[in-house]
Amino acid sequence: MSICLAIETSCDETSIAIVKDGVEVASNVVSSQVDLHAVFGGVVPEVASRLHLETIHPLLNQAMAEAKVEPADITLIAATHGPGLIGALLVGVSAAKALSLAWDVPYIEVNHVEGHLFATFLESPDLQAPFVVLLVAGGHTQIVHVVNKGEYKILGSTIDDAAGEAFDKVARYMDLGYPGGPIIDKLAESGQNDLIKFPRALLDGSFDFSFSGLKTSVVSYVKKNPEVNDADIVASFQEAVVDVLIKKTIAAAEFVEVSTICIGGGVAANSRLRSKLQEKCESEGFDCKVPSLEYCTDNAAMIAAAGQWRFDSQGASSLDGGAVSSLSLEAI
Ligand code: KG4
Ligand code: ZN
Question: Is domain 126-292 given the CATH code 3.30.390.30 in the classification?
Answer without folding.
Answer: no
